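Q: What does the predicted 3D structure of DUF488 domain-containing protein look like?
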Amino acid sequence: MKPIQIKRVYDTPSKSDGYRILIDRIWPRGVSKEEAKLDDWNKDLAPSTELRKWFDHDPEKFDDFSNKYKKELKDQSEVLKELRQKAKDQKVTLLYGAKDTAHNQAVVLKEILEGLDASS
């Protein structure tokens, strides 16, 4: 599998990003679709609105957020398999809008994608 990278959608796009997928439910403020240079925007891979509001980017809640988000993603197994398959052929960059680079859904999703059984 090629490396899966995480990056803020506000960071400058690079050709080395490979397949760029936004995993936020809400479009990030101040970024045009042209500037984002996305290959995909998958709202289904984003945390639910309720979970996002509950978490409110509070680092103290990150472990609980991570567990709850992983449970939500169990309903997205086909989409996860497709994304993991894509990562076998090319580099994938998970894009998010949060300011906190260590406590966000992309960190959790990357962990899940890298941890899926290779036969998936």
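A (community wiki): The structure tokens above were generated from the sequence. The mean pLDDT is 94. The longest helix spans residues 77-89.
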